[in-house]
Every structure is written in structure tokens, then in C-alpha cells.
Amino acid sequence: MPSSAARFYCRVARKYRSRAVSRAFRVLELLGEHPGGLTLAAMARQTGVAMSSLLPILGSLAECSTVRILPERRYALDVGVLQLAHRYIQGADLVCEFAPIGQRLVQEFNETVQMGVLSGSEVTYIAREESRHPVRLVSQLGHTVPAQNSAIGKALLSGLRADRLRELIGPEPFPALTSSSLRTYRSLERDLHSIRVNGFGESREECIEGLHCVSAAIKDPSGALVAALSISTPVFRMNPSTRLAMIRSVKSAADEISYSVARVKGQRLEQLDDAVEGPGGQQSGRLAVSG
């Protein structure tokens, strides 16, 4: 059953819904039902939306590569639809594969385990398994923190080129969350180099006073860093042997999720490709992607 917070945000979303976005989605659904594409006039008839209103919608969708203009001024779905489907599959699989592994890590260490993704210059937490300790990290899904201050963020930043890193993080000194927060590129690059060499990241009270986190990145089949996993513990429960055990386990868990997501994603993409192409390589009416 949805939580009260989820129901509240659903009500807010319905109250502030956008007619243009609803129309754009209807256009995508309609084009998905017509693999050969539709003219502007045909879409206007079937949606009941004036051609003058459809044109800017189609222009925006074409700019995002979700709609393509075919000969004879017909419109059809483009590869952006397939790319969105792939990203959805990746995100859904990450969360599904995290759950049992996160629970196992909690059983092993009785500390909070989280997974996050890079959202611009911040980390967004998308999955969590909580410690049973009365003193533990308490956070909310969807919560964001500056990437350079978190173990998850630094694990993900380690996959960026230097120019992209500076473009993302911005000028120094970086904003400080605690007295231990990194403030300069020199200190950040030192940590990122260590992550690249050793395969794990750490945040020692850089995000929250009194909290020590260890992390490792999760990779997609191409080797790109798509998420990261962390174990967080109060500093008074951290010691050298616990730290080494956490590092070993978080690296192993991240590798396990990477492998599982790659396997499941391959299976899902095969099913999606079967939906795109019918027998003999013909496009199916269930999903038409022009290209």
C-alpha cells in the first residue's frame, strides 16, 4: 500500500499536471500504434489537438530524438524511445538487485547500506537497507548530497575526466558540510586517484560529523560507472579490522550487482529487441523505432 507521503505527492502531481506533457505522451503512444508513421493531419484527427498545437510538441520530441520526421512529412518514433527504455531497465534492475545484497551486508555488519547515483554535481540515494542499531545513519530515499563530500559520490566521480569533473563540481573552495569536507581539487583528486587504484572510496566525517562510509562503484556492461554502494557506520564503531572487512565486502557486493544487472539487462534487452523486430527482422506493431 502506498505511504501517506506517496499519496500526497500523487495528489500534488495530479493537481499540477501539464497539458503539453500529457499531449506529448499521447503522441508517443499514438505513434507506437502506427509503425509506418502518421502525418500531422492524421495525428490532429486522432488526438483532437489542433495542428498548430501539435507542431511545437513534435519539434520538442524530435529534438530529444524520440520522434523522427520521415519522407512525405510523416512522423514516427525514433531511437530515443528505445534509449529511455534501456535506462529504465537499468535503473529498475539496479534497485531490484540491490535489495538482497543490501540485506546481506546489513546482516554481516548491522550498519546502514545505501545505493546512490550521480545527479549532476550531487548524489541521489535510490535504495537503502537500515541498520538495527539505535545509533545509525538515518536518511531518506531521494535525499541528495554534494558528490565530493560522500563516499558514493567520490566513487562515481572517479570515472570522470578532469575537465568533466571541474565542469560538474564548479569552482573551489567547495562548500563545506563539516570541518572535514574536501574544499579543493587537489584534495579531491588525491582521493579519486586512490579510488581508481584501490577500487573503493571513503568519506571520513566529510558529509556528516561522526560518520565513516566506505563505497565501491557499480558498472554497466560497457564499464561505465552507473551507481555506487556504501556502508555507513558511526566512527566510534569503526576500527581497522572492521574497516578492512567492510572494504572487502562492499567491493565484492558492487561487483556482484554489476554482474547481476548486466545479466538481467541482457535478457531484458533481448525481449525488448524481440518487441521491436518481428519475424524476419520486420518491425512489430507493438513498438516501432525508425532509424
Account of the 3D structure:
By secondary structure, the chain is of the alpha+beta class. It folds into two domains: 4-77, Winged helix-like DNA-binding domain superfamily/Winged helix DNA-binding domain (Arc Repressor Mutant, subunit A, Orthogonal Bundle); 84-264, 2-Layer Sandwich (Beta-Lactamase). The chain is built from nine helices and nine strands. Helix 2 crosses helix 4 and helix 5 (79-109) packs antiparallel against helix 9 (240-276). The longest helix has 37 residues, at 240-276. The protein starts with a helix and ends in a 15-residue tail after the last helix.
Largest sheet: 6 strands, antiparallel
State the shape.
Answer: elongated
How do the helices and strands follow one another from N- to C-terminus?
A: HHEHHEEHEEEHHHEEEH
Low-confidence stretches: 282-291
Average pLDDT: 83
Q: Going across the biggest sheet, name each strand in turn.
A: 6-5-4-9-8-7
Quick recap of the structure?
This protein is α+β, with helices and mostly antiparallel strands and 291 residues long. The chain is built from nine helices and nine strands.
